[in-house]
Amino acid sequence: DTEVTQTPKHLVMGMTNKKSLKCEQHMGHRAMYWYKQKAKKPPELMFVYSYEKLSINESVPSRFSPECPNSSLLNLHLHALQPEDSALYLCASSQDSGQAPYGYTFGSGTRLTVV
Amino acid sequence: AQSVTQLGSHVSVSEGALVLLRCNYSSSVPPYLFWYVQYPNQGLQLLLKYTSAATLVKGINGFEAEFKKSETSFHLTKPSAHMSDAAEYFCAVSKASNTGKLIFGQGTTLQVKP
Fold first, then answer.
1. Would you call the peptide bond into A8 cis, given omega within 30 degrees of 0 as the criterion?
2. First-to-last C-alpha distance (Å) of chain A
3. How many CB atoms lie within 10 A of CB A6?
């Protein structure tokens, strides 16, 4: 299995809703990432998990809450989002955050719309 | 601080023509460099990477890139464009540290005309 699987592919949520994005990989990678991508822009790093511990939080608002229950699974919990949070949310994994040269494997993303 | 600059936000070529997408990097230490491709409504796919081995790197789908330290460049080329190459292309850099953080350029949209 050489894929990163993200669910759901599309999500529409109201500003008072609570929802979660899910990301799963079975490549034995020990680093996992959440990126946010607005239209026609490059991905922006949000969080990095290394060996199931949060190692980087790029000053992301607390309405985004990451969770790494085990080495294969990464969640992003969403609460009280704003319309400007609408974007493509990408999950990625790599063998190890210290092995940057190997690059990431990206999932196909979740297209989030906040209404 | 590291950064990448992609020259040209939009490149248009005819089918069968040479593809050249430009990327210049800024790094105080030897970098690791990557090219990713993103098709509409999809994630990013790694095309190729430079990790201080050979300076000419061959990737998937017939793409290659040459690392030129003197020019701080890592331009992406393909001898003959195909309609299926139309996509967004991102150059990215990371350094030999333990953060795993990738820094992306602004992207270049490649249009291929029949």
1. yes
2. 36
3. 23
DSSP codes joined into one string, A44-101: EEEEEEETTEEEEE-S--TTEEEEEEETTEEEEEEES--GGG-EEEEEEEES-TT-GG
pLDDT digits (tens, 9 = 90+) for A71-114: 999 999 999 999 999 999 999 998 876 655 567 899 999 999 99
Q: Among A82, A2, A101, A108, which residue's Cα sits nearest to residue B31?
A: A101
pLDDT of residue A96: 73
CA–CA separation, A102 and B66 (whole Å): 18
CB A98 within 8 A of CB B100: yes
CB-based contacts of B111: which residues, under 8 Å, 6+ apart? B10, B11, B12, B13, B86
Task: Identify the residue among A5, A25, A88, A104 best suited for mutation to test binding to B, counting B beta carbons within 10 A and taking the highest.
Answer: A104
Q: Does A80 touch chain B (CB under 8 A)?
A: no
The residues of B whose Cβ lies within 8 A of any Cβ of A are 32, 34, 36, 41-46, 49, 51, 90, 94-102, 104-107
Å between A107 CA and nearest CA of chain B: 6
